[in-house]
């Protein structure tokens, strides 16, 4: 993930099941440090106002944000990044890209989120470079989320690697974004599902396993029949045997949302046999 996107919707895209997030994550260094210690990071945009502002007000705010981006002060840039984490304006992209090179990790991370909100082909290569090499876990976590808004870019293998080897916070969002990357067609869906199946079985972090279950449910329609069967069996085993109730619940929800009659019948049989409540 989790995570966002309905890529045709200018609003936030759907995330994985674990997406709680402090609203001021990318502005407050103290919040940033606290969240890094906790490792499991949510979507920092979840709590933004959901009411659509008037177009004229948005245009004025974006104009102000562009002016702020052109200033050299840290405070001005952070105010601008707050704006472009909330609004889309292609004029911001050329001003956002240089901020990915800032020495301040808070600026880098905030610029990454803004480029997730304002996707551009120009941002793909620098974002992938940060995912591979940035030494700050928060920056890599931000990239893992933002790449979910670039499903047609060559992000599949980088996200798979992050899900294999990075810290829990990054793996959490890599799982969600991997579902977005794999959802663009069967050729990508199968390798994405293969990694999510592995993470569902072996990842040590329950939230990552939950997002893997959620992602598998999203990928299911694009998978060939043998892989679909593997997904169903893995989700059933997770639903019955995972040590964490939240992971079991997410696996059950993923199975129910497949809306496959044979799967629903199987779930009802498990309920009838007392193996499920």
Calculate Rg over CA atoms. Answer: 19 Å
Principal-axes shape call: elongated
Question: Could you tell me the number of beta strands?
Answer: 0
Q: Quote the CATH topology of the largest domain.
A: Leucine-rich Repeat Variant
Strand content: under 5%
The CATH architecture of the largest domain can be given as Alpha Horseshoe
Distance between the termini: 28 Å
**Biggest sheet: strands, sense, closure?**
none
H-E string: HHHHHHHHHHHHHH
Q: What's the CATH C level of the largest domain? A: Mainly Alpha
Number of domains: 2
Number of helices: 14
Which residue ranges are poorly predicted, with pLDDT under 50 across at least 5 consecutive positions? 1-14, 20-33, 35-42
Helix and strand composition category = mainly alpha
| Whole-number mean pLDDT | 85
Q: Percentage of helical residues?
A: 55-70%
Give a structural overview.
It is a single chain. The chain has 277 residues and is mainly alpha-helical. It has 2 domains: 1-152, Alpha Horseshoe (Leucine-rich Repeat Variant), CATH 1.25.10; 183-277, Leucine-rich Repeat Variant, CATH 1.25.10. It has helices at residues 29-38, 55-69, 74-86, 93-96, 105-117, 124-133, 137-146, 156-165, 168-182, 186-202, 206-219, 225-241, 245-257, 261-272. The protein is elongated and about 65 Å long. The model is unreliable at 1-14, 20-33 and 35-42 (pLDDT under 50).
């Amino acid at each position: 993930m989790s995570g966002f996107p309905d890529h045709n919707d200018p609003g936030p895209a759907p995330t994985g099941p674990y997406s709680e997030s402090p609203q001021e994550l990318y502005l407050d260094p103290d919040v940033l440090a606290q969240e890094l210690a906790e490792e499991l990071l949510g979507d920092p945009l979840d709590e933004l106002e959901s009411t659509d502002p008037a177009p004229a007000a948005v245009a004025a705010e974006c104009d102000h944000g562009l002016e702020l981006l052109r200033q050299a002060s840290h405070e001005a840039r952070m105010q601008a990044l707050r704006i472009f984490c909330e609004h889309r304006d292609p004029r911001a992209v050329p001003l956002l890209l240089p901020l990915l090179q800032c020495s301040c990790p808070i600026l880098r991370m905030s610029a990454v989120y803004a480029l997730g909100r304002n996707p551009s082909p120009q941002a793909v290569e620098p974002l992938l470079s940060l995912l591979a090499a940035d030494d700050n876990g928060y920056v890599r976590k931000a990239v893992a989320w933002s790449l979910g808004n670039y499903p047609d870019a060559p992000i599949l293998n980088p996200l798979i690697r992050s899900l294999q080897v990075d810290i829990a916070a990054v793996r959490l969002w890599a799982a969600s974004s991997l579902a977005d990357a794999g959802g663009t067609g069967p050729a990508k869906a199968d390798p994405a599902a293969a990694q999510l199946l592995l993470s569902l079985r072996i990842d040590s972090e329950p939230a990552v396993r939950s997002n893997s279950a959620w992602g598998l449910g999203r990928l299911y329609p694009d998978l060939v029949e043998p892989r679909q069967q593997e997904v169903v069996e893995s989700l059933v085993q997770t639903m019955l045997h995972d040590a964490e109730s939240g992971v079991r619940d997410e696996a059950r929800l993923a199975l129910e949302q497949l809306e496959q009659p044979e799967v629903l019948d199987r779930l009802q049989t498990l309920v009838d046999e007392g193996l499920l409540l």
